Structure formats: C-alpha cells, structure tokens
Amino acid sequence: MAQLWGGRFTKETDKLVYDFNASISFDKRFYAQDIRGSIAHVTMLARQKILTEEEKNQIIEGLNGIREDVENGTLLITEEYEDIHSFVEANLIGRIGDVGKKLHTGRSRNDQVALDMKLYTRDEILELDGLLKGLLEVLLKLMKEHTETYMPGFTHLQKAQPVTLAHHLGAYFEMFRRDRSRMKDIYRRMNTCPLGAGALAGTTYPLDREYTAELLEFDGPTLNSMDSVSDRDYLIELLSAMSTVMMHLSRFSEEVIIWNSNEYQFVELDDAYSTGSSIMPQKKNPDIAELVRGKTGRVYGALMSLLTAMKGIPLAYNKDMQEDKEQVFDAIDTTKGCLALFTGMLDTMKFRREKMADSAKNGFTNATDAADYLVNHGVPFRDAHGIVGQLVLSCIEKDKALDDLTLEEYKAVSTVFEEDIYEAISMKTCVEMRNVIGAPGKAAMEKVIAQEEAYLAAE
Hints:
Helices cover 62% and strands 4% of the residues. By secondary structure, the protein is mainly alpha-helical. The strands form two sheets. The protein has a two-stranded antiparallel ribbon. A two-stranded antiparallel sheet has the order 3-4. α3 runs antiparallel to α4 (53-71), α4 packs across α5 (84-96) and α10 (233-260) packs parallel to α12. It is elongated and about 100 Å long.
C-alpha cells in the first residue's frame, strides 16, 4: 500500500480501513491535471531557487513520461496506491530516484487536490458549454425553418392560443442560453489558484503563488489559505447549474414524449433515437427522452448529497470533502451524455406540420382572436368573452372548429359577425398579428432569430 504519510504510524492501516479511505478508484480520472499542477509547482520552485534547474528538468521529464505512459496504456493506474497523488509521486521516485522526493516541497495534498479538482472542473465547464452551444445551434436551425409552422400553445396542458414551432423552440433557446451564462459565471468566479495554501496555513517556503497561478491560467491566487482547501462552493454551483440544465432537458423531453404519442403525432423520432417493444410490434418508444427525464433526478441527487456533506464541516479540510468527487464526476458525465443525445435526437426529429396546425385549429386556440374581433367592432370585452364562450359550446356540441361554423351560425349568437371573421381567426392571422418583440409573429420572430444568430456567432 503506497502511502505518503507513514512515518507517524507504527503499524499498517487495516486493509478495510485503507480501502474505505482510498480515492484512487475515482480520482485517477484527473491524472493529467495532477501532473500539470506538479509541473507548474516545480517550475515555480526552481524560479524561487528552492530547486535547481537540473532538478526541475529531471522532475518535469519524469512527470511527462508518466503522463505519456498512462495515455498510451503502458502504465496502469492501479489501486495499490491510495490516491492519484501517491501514484504520480511513487512512479516519479521510481523513475528518477531521490530527486522525485522533492516534488512535494511546499505543498500539501490538501491544496494539491483542491487544485486538481479546479483544473478538472474548469475543463469540464468548457466541454459543457460546447455541448450547450451545439444544442443552441440545432434549435436556431429549426427556428429558422419553422416560423410558419403553426401549432397550439398550451397553459395547464390545455390548448390556449396558436403559436409557431419556431416560437415554442425559441423558449428553450432562452433557457439553454441562460444555462451557458451560468457556466461562464461559475468559471469566472472559481478561477483562482489554491496551490501554495498548504494544508491550511500556507508554508514557510518563499513560494511565488502569483507565478504559479499565471502558469496554470488562473486570474490569480486564492487569498485565504483556509478557504482555499475547504472551498467546494464552485462544485455546488456547478451541480446547481447542471441540475437546471437537466430540468430544462427534462421539460423538453416531456414535450417530445407527449408530441410523439398517438394522440398528438406532432413528431416522428428517428429510428436511431428510439426503440421498439419486445412484445408489441407496433411500438416506437421515445427512450432517449424518457431516460433524459429519468436521469435528471440523478443530477439533483448529487447536488443534495454535496450540500448535505458540506453543511456541518468546520474549517479547514476534513475527509468528508472527498465525497465531492464521485458525485460531481457522475453528474458531469450524466449531463454531458444527456446533452449530446438530446441534441442528436432533436436534430433528426421530423415535425408533422399538418398535424400541428390541425391541433391548433381544433382546440379553439383562436377563440381569443374571435373575441378581439368583436371588441374591434365595438362590443365590450366582457360581452365578447361571453359570446365566444357560447360559440365554443356550440362547436363542442356539433363537433366543429370555430373555422367550420357558417356565417349564419355566427350571426345566430351575435349580428356583429361578418364574412371577415374567417380571415380574422385563421391560424396565420392569429399568429402574424402578434408582432410585439417576443411574440410568435413572423416579423417579431425574425428579429429574435437575427439576435440569437449574432449571439452564437460572437461566441
């Protein structure tokens, strides 16, 4: 068992205790970040004359060799080591001898793991941002294609007013755009370097923390060594942001599932993103959407787990904090996988325009416009509301849409109606008349689409 702290102890740790304490099974995933941080650390040590140039070069050569061998598969990260730091240091000493023992000068595993986790998280935030941008690009493409694809808008899961598919998808564009801004905020706020904080109180070595931060592309060093090693706020923020991403994906997935049902038939899923039934040959199931919806709870669970772990921890570092990694790693993997799969499903989905338009027409989504017609002809709104309510009741009894009523049937309820009522309540008119910015009218949507296009191009 490779340990960095055995001098104080007179007998070996119990095997069960050792395994319970060890983190190599999961923290091995940031071997590259650990090596990158170590290279920056020894570069700074040499600059400060704590190491010689020759010692620095030997250590860096050894570290680069370890990274290359891990990446090409000739060196395996095994569980005989307690953690990734032990693995790197033990292999370095094995390769270059006693010089390798100087790697840890002026450093603790506490600030080392804090650095590794920040470097890893920073990289993952950039990947998440890229996946979000890819989803936004697909959404924008579909918005451009569907400014005249009419469909019902809903409140309370009931048909309310006609909108376009571009407008409906545009709502999700706004959600995922906010998700990207949250990722950028987290990156900016977390981008300070904890290396040099030591175990909790810094070190007596004359370290240049500003230089180390610069080498690792941080905005600067952290300003309190106790906070440096015990801060997990950025991980809680990331889990919260990913939970919001998953909530948005889950809402969208729920709509895809509804739209794919026999009752709606708004969409047809590509065969590559759906499955069949083992017993019912007619089935084409929206499994990807359902799994995304299901996996949302998994990411929520990681957020609650870390919040709970952190709520009672006094300053500074405590071993409880090791529980951050598995939860965060799993949540990142889950969110990235869901974003990639959902984007592929959306990009290959076929939208059934006629079904959508018929659904809007047959759901009385133009009832508000019929009332507005009466108001524009001098009828008080409250009276107009009651007149159209009577028309809707008549339509339900006759199994008709408002568009299907004869002019005589209209006049039987109110003599104000004339032939132009049909134009006033057509899906096209109902949508196109709504051109305030943010509304579904084509002119308004084209302005929004131009702004969204400029936003993505600027990125």
